[in-house]
């Protein structure tokens, strides 16, 4: 990380070379969107992208410290037993890295303290919430204050949704983005805060990054099917206070190219899918800031 900075300082100038951005995509135990996440990171310009099995983090073979951008993909980790991502959250919280006293969670805390970026999609968002990484009030990441639970419809929802971003949110991933159209595919996407105070704080601190909306992207919508799960205040995505941790139920890695769009043969669409901008914002931010 400091290599290029040091080299450039030695040449008597501040960094002129762009920082090399290394991305990790965690997989294993039922994750199934890791290839698409890795593809999105590569298209966004990440210099290195590794798909890493969680067992290789536990064994110490791979280290979070060696990366800048952590991707937590969608899927069915541990078969959704005990509630989506709950068992995996406990794994991260309590399992120690082999031969050390450090838990995976400790390395995650260091990753966050270093100002790096984490993106959780669907099952990855569920993991962040159950770990307390989101909304992560006051950096108290071990306390869970919101959950993602069963859709009001009582069934798995697989549809495209309209999303309204909050332009005043500190989220680095959605900068310059207006209305976004992306697919959801989940059984447990309804966001429920612990109490009214938590909900108020989420809105006051502009941590509600995305809301399910009408097709003009103007109004947040509580009604089904635009709001596919009955999520409180139509919340589809949250960031932490710094905007560097972001989780969302819809899948940005599933709309990288026009041909991913359900009506691509009938509508005139830009060649690039809207989801890619989320990854590009992350990579560009890391190049600038780290
Ligand atoms: N696509 C996903 O990541 C799904 C997450 C989780 N298995 C659910 O159904 O809610």
Automatic annotation (TrEMBL):
E.C. no: 6.3.5.3
InterPro entries listed in its UniProt record: Class_I_gatase-like
Molecular function terms from GO: phosphoribosylformylglycinamidine synthase activity
A single Gene Ontology CC term: cytoplasm
Alphabetical list of Pfam families matching this protein: GATase_5 (PF13507)
Biological process, per Gene Ontology: purine nucleotide biosynthetic process
Keywords: Ligase
EC class: ligase
Superkingdom: Bacteria
UniProt xrefs under PROSITE patterns: GATASE_TYPE_1
Protein name per UniProt: Phosphoribosylformylglycinamidine synthase
Organism: Syntrophus aciditrophicus (strain SB)
Lineage of source species: Bacteria, Pseudomonadati, Thermodesulfobacteriota, Syntrophia, Syntrophales
